[in-house]
Amino acid sequence: MIEPFMRSLLTFIFIPLLLAGCASQQDLQAVKWEVDTLKTRLVKAENKIKEKDRLVEQGLGQQAELQARLNELQEQMFALQGGLEEIRNSSGKGVAGAASERRLSAVEKELEDIRKRVDLELKEALEFAKTSPEPEESALFENLYV
Known about the structure:
There is one protein chain. Helices cover 83% and strands 0% of the residues. It has one domain. It is an all-alpha fold.
């Protein structure tokens, strides 16, 4: 004979199982479909993140190249301005003065050409910055060297 305690324990265990029942094949298919849908969405989201990361890296690389080119052009411009000042200070009269004036004109023209190139590259950089997607916040602090 089963003790009253065991009987109540068995009743307590089996009644919830009988009431809950088993999942039907249709329920299992619905859950499987939802899981598959979530997996698909996850893969798409991961791919979008990878693409954004690629674009950020590409943008940062182009930004670094533009900055290096801008620095190079500014150095050339400063060197030419120094040469221009030197010519102005040393220019005299006569044959040497005429040669200095020609040299001065050539340097001024070269300096103006460099200014135009700097302006053009700055405009291109600005347009690139306007049309590029914004980087993730974490990417803003990468590749900083202080």
